[in-house]
Write a structure and sequence with these properties.
Blueprint (H helix, E strand, L loop, with lengths): L3 E10 L2 E11 L3 E6 L6 H8 L7 E6 L2 E2 L5 H7 L1 E3 L12 H6 L18 H20 L15 H13 L5 E5 L7 H13 L6 E5 L3 H7 L2 E6 L2 E6 L1 H5 L2 H9 L1 H8 L2
Parallel strand pairs: 3-8, 3-9, 6-7, 7-8
Antiparallel strand pairs: 1-2, 1-4, 4-5, 9-10
Bound molecules: adenosine-5'-triphosphate and magnesium ion.
Length: 261
């Protein structure tokens, strides 16, 4: 059984078919990448998988369970966690608080009790702090714990977002352009880090415009153009596919802009 099965997924916005009859699978222990020119529908796929959008047609099966059309909360509890193309951190909060806030939904005591010190609250806060310590160590941000999240360099903010996504202990991590805005040294480090995340999660879905990074770390690549899949395979298969080359050459200027977004 595949870890994730996407079957005939389709969504239309007015006359635009943003994702068009898309089918692919993700296998356990693998990095699956979703690539394609600007506007190809990549982020929309993540929005469909994670309950931000409801598909017009098609199914999403996670570990054998149909999660099509489930709300974002349910999807997270079933094991899909994402990061965003445009970093979404709470800018006035510390690094620690940005992780802690991801734990709020698991809070183990009522809102009335939370106003007063009580054993349940103290116990929960202790556990939450311990988990935060572990996650900050995992993303190598321990020494920035009490700093404002926006004071971190860009690459570290992206890692903090990944840390926050790990709070839910997901089966699958969905990363939307994690290398955007990074310099070559940060990108190299990130690619090793993403690969190492397969120790923490069962599978990773990666959207990325940096072709070197994608070719280096993907087990499988799915290529979208105008919402539809035009090719799927191992990096070397995709790299040499004529339709893929044409899709990229035809939109080269737009693609380069995206890489620097
Ligand atoms: N909520 C929406 N309403 C209308 N159109 C939308 C909506 N969301 C996405 N689209 C359109 O769907 C298409 C696919 O957008 P999407 O953001 O998924 O592309 P992408 O592959 O992630 O591009 P990029 O590489 O630039 O991030 C675009 O034409 C976009 O304008
Ligand atoms: Mg996108």
């Amino acid at each position: 059984m595949s870890l994730l099965e996407v079957k005939n997924l389709t969504i239309r916005f007015g006359g635009l078919v943003a994702v068009d009859d898309l089918s692919f699978t993700m296998e356990e222990g693998q990095i699956t990448s979703l690539i394609g020119p600007n506007g190809a529908g990549k982020t929309t796929v993540i929005n469909l998988l994670t309950g931000f959008y409801t598909p017009n047609e098609g199914k999403v099966i996670l570990d054998g369970e149909d999660i099509t059309g489930a709300s974002t909360d349910i999807v997270v509890s079933k094991g899909l966690s994402r990061t965003f193309q445009n970093i979404r951190l709470f800018s006035n909060m510390t690094v620690e608080d940005n992780i802690l806030i991801g734990m709020q939904h698991r809070i183990g005591y009522g809102s009335f009790l939370s106003l007063f010190p009580n054993p349940k609250k103290i116990e929960w806060e202790k556990r939450a702090k311990e988990e935060t310590t572990a996650i900050l160590e995992r993303v190598d941000l321990s020494k920035y714990r009490y700093e404002k999240s926006t004071s971190l360099p860009y690459g570290k903010q992206r890692k903090l977002e990944i840390g926050r996504a790990l709070v839910a202990k997901p089966k699958i991590l969905l990363l939307d352009e994690p290398a955007a805005g990074m310099n070559p040294v940060e990108k190299k480090e990130l690619s090793l880090f993403i690969r190492s995340l397969l120790k923490d999660v069962k599978g990773i879905l990666l959207i990325e415009h940096d072709m070197k990074l994608v070719m280096d770390i993907s087990d499988k690549i799915v290529v979208l153009n105008h919402g539809a899949k035009i090719c799927e395979g191992k990096p070397e298969e995709v790299q040499n596919n004529q339709e893929v080359i044409e899709a990229y050459l035809g939109r080269k200027g737009a693609h380069n802009n995206a890489a620097s977004k």
